[in-house]
Specification:
The chain has 663 residues and is an alpha/beta fold. The chain has 3 domains: 15-162 and 229-394, TIM Barrel (Alpha-Beta Barrel); 402-595, Class I glutamine amidotransferase (GATase) domain (Rossmann fold); 607-662, Immunoglobulin-like (Sandwich), CATH 2.60.40. The structure holds alpha-D-galactopyranose (GLA).
């Protein structure tokens, strides 16, 4: 089943609501919940996410009565249900019966109970029990008219990305056997002639447990691949049960893109019916709305450009950051609309009602502890009213301007230990390049390195350290056919097995870039280098040897003083740029603008502008993150105020406008 073959739940509305936990409240409160949900315009809630122990209080002893009543109440109120499989929180009795299903850390510690997510994804007992409770739910509720969507599990890999127990070790060996076929192949791929690590029998291979420094990087990389696949296998088990017993109801699981490093969501995206994502602001960052936009663009890209669901975000502060900064007035609204602008067909929250007890009692909610006399509640109700005017956006598609290459495997590989500098960071470069596109008011699609690039005039490749030959060929074909490619340093260095491409760095890209990198020249902490054109850079420099490329900027000082720093190589119909040092902000702008990332003319700083297009209309979503009123040259009908707009659309400071355009 592919992400694209099933439709979004057919609500025909922008989904509005959140995680609903009636099991934490007496039944009398449920009536108030439903009344207030209607008042706030809630039309969709996620139910039962951590309720396994309440649905199956003892092995094989089920209590669905309360859930029957909850779902019936919601249905009577016209509120659709995303019904969760509760498998992210197995009951205490499960771990007592199956102690070997507890997760084991890299250090060999067995995780205890009292939290959630403590299970081993390779445990046969866990897999059987998870499929069992899933089947019970599917049989009972699969044809319930309130059911819009299955919400499988919750944030696979959230707490612990991998388990190192014996069951995981044998599943890892089986995974390796399927990947490599023979031990000779594995020994070659892992380079086990290094440090005499050769394996003569599959049973000799272990997960990369705590060991002396310098654990085989390919072993580590394969274990990361395996661990992502193992959680994906857990999802597939549940999905297949749901498809079999409740055909026609789409299945999602909530991703954490890009904040979960450990799940290769390109692989996951191919398996879920509907892409959904959870996003929380990095609240202390003053530019956190740009990180939000990146997450939303990445999620849409995982959905192949199709609409997706924002499964969770927050009305205000979370409870798990070092300092849980509250959202400023208007910020929740801007956040919700920014996700919608970038392709979400819902704005759902964690959570409907704040818990009085437990680990998350200080987390914000649609209905906070302060109740309905609070600003938060008024904002929630206002957002619900505004979103009820947005139904015509459902199913429309975002129009991108350029692409950025994104790859989880390259991220993992780049950040293993013993790289040439501890200052190399994957998200550092991704965010730096994305930031520039956002500030230029350009909309980014993310693509897999081997994905189709042909529709984009420009493609950025930030630090793609691991690059398959197929990816390199893909980038080369893109440039030959007329594309503009900008590659940043430490890209195209190794293949999928973390083996250096032969013939000198960057082996996968030398011909395309028209140069080679003779030596990496990382900088001391805090030191900077100057480039001509009045640019400064830090962290990383290289000694380049040109072989067809022309130098666009040179290093003025530092270890590569006088040598090329930024180059351009015309290749076929297109151009491949290379940036061999770490530029940020305006310094990076200068280069990207010269390469063709031209800012959208006439738009003020801080105005986020995205277009969604449908069969019969086009929509401009404008979000003003600044404290100055802004104006856009556009005509159409504004959907929040309902006002016609002739030539000029005012977007007040801190506010949002959605224009159905006529031009
Ligand atoms: C995650 C989980 C939720 C909740 C929130 C809190 O997204 O899915 O259950 O813990 O975080 O921010």
């Amino acid at each position: 089943m592919n992400g694209g073959t099933r439709a979004l739940p057919r609500l025909g509305k922008i989904g509005y609501g959140g995680d609903y936990t009636p099991e934490q409240w007496p039944e009398a409160v449920w009536h108030e919940d439903v009344r207030l949900m209607r008042e706030a315009g809630v039309n969709q809630v996620s139910v039962g996410i951590f309720a396994w122990a309440l649905l199956e209080p003892a092995p094989g002893d089920y209590d669905f009565g309360w859930l029957d009543r909850v779902i019936a109440m919601l249905h009577d109120a016209g509120i659709a249900v995303n019904l969760a499989t509760p498998t992210a929180a197995p009951p205490a009795w499960f771990f007592q019966r199956h102690p070997q299903a507890r997760q084991v850390t890299r250090e060999g510690h067995v995780l205890g109970g009292g939290a959630r997510h403590a299970f081993c994804p390779s445990s046969p007992a866990y897999r059987k029990a998870a499929a069992g409770i899933t089947a019970q739910l599917a049989r009972r509720y699969g044809d319930h008219p309130a059911l819009a969507l299955w919400h499988a599990h919750n944030e696979y890999g959230w707490a612990n990305s991998a388990c190192y127990c014996e069951a995981s070790a044998s599943a890892f060996r089986e995974w390796l056997r399927l990947r490599y076929g023979t031990l000779d192949e594995l020994n070659a791929a892992w380079g086990t002639s290094f440090w005499g690590q050769r394996y003569g029998d599959w049973t000799e291979i272990d997960p990369p447990r705590l060991a002396p420094p310098g654990v085989n990087p390919t072993q580590q990389l394969d274990f990361l691949r395996f661990s992502s696949d193992e959680y994906l296998a857990c999802f597939r088990d549940e999905r297949d049960v749901l498809h079999r017993l409740a055909p026609g109801v789409p299945v999602t699981t909530n991703f954490m893109a890009p904040n979960c490093k450990w799940m290769d969501y390109w692989r996951w995206a191919a398996e879920v019916d509907v892409i959904s994502n959870d996003h929380y602001l990095q609240a202390e960052r003053t530019d956190n709305h740009i990180e939000l936009a990146m997450a939303a663009d990445l999620t849409r890209s995982l959905a192949g450009g199709r609409p997706w669901l924002l499964m969770e975000h927050s009305t205000g502060a979370v409870n798990w950051q070092p300092r849980n900064i509250a959202k400023a007035p208007g910020e929740m609204r801007r956040n919700s609309f920014a996700h919608i602008a970038r392709g979400a067909d819902s704005a759902l929250f964690f959570q409907w009602r704040a818990s009085r007890f437990g680990a998350e009692k200080f987390h914000s909610a649609m209905l906070p502890h302060a109740g309905t006399s609070s600003r938060m509640w008024r904002d929630v109700a206002r957002l619900g009213a505004d979103l009820s005017n947005m139904d015509e956006l459902v199913g429309t598609r975002v129009v991108p301007d350029l692409a950025v290459v994104w790859d989880w495997e390259a991220w993992w590989a780049l950040e293993l230990e013993w790289r040439p500098s501890v200052d190399l960071g994957y998200l550092d470069r991704l965010s730096a390049y994305y930031d520039r596109a956002w500030r230029a008011h350009r909309t980014v699609d993310f693509v897999h390195p081997e994905g189709d690039l042909s529709r984009y005039p420009m493609v950025l490749v930030p630090s793609l350290y691991l690059m398959s030959s197929a990816a390199a060929a893909n980038l080369a074909a893109y440039v030959r056919d007329g594309g503009t490619l900008v590659v940043s340093y430490f890209s195209g260095i190794v293949d999928e097995t973390d083996t250096v491409h032969p013939g000198g760095y960057p082996g996968a890209l030398r011909d395309l870039l028209g140069l080679s990198v003779e030596e990496f020249l990382p900088l001391r902490a805090g030191s900077r280098v100057r480039l001509d054109g009045d640019l400064t850079a830090d962290v990383w420099t290289e000694r380049l040897v040109l072989a067809g490329a022309e130098s666009v900027r040179r290093y003025l000082d530092g270890p590569a003083a006088g040598e090329p720093a930024i180059t351009r190589h015309r290749c076929g119909e297109g151009t491949a740029w290379y940036v061999s040092t770490r530029l940020n902000g305006r310094d990076l702008d200068a280069v990207l603008t010269e390469a063709g990332l031209v800012p959208h003319a006439g738009l003020p700083d801080g105005l986020e502008l995205v277009r969604r297009v449908g069969d019969s209309a086009s929509y401009l979503i404008a979000i003003n993150h600044s404290d100055r009123d802004a104006e856009l040259a556009a005509s159409g009908k504004e959907l929040i105020t309902g006002a016609p707009c002739h030539g000029t659309l005012p977007v007040p400071a801190g506010d949002v406008r959605v224009l159905r355009t006529t031009s």
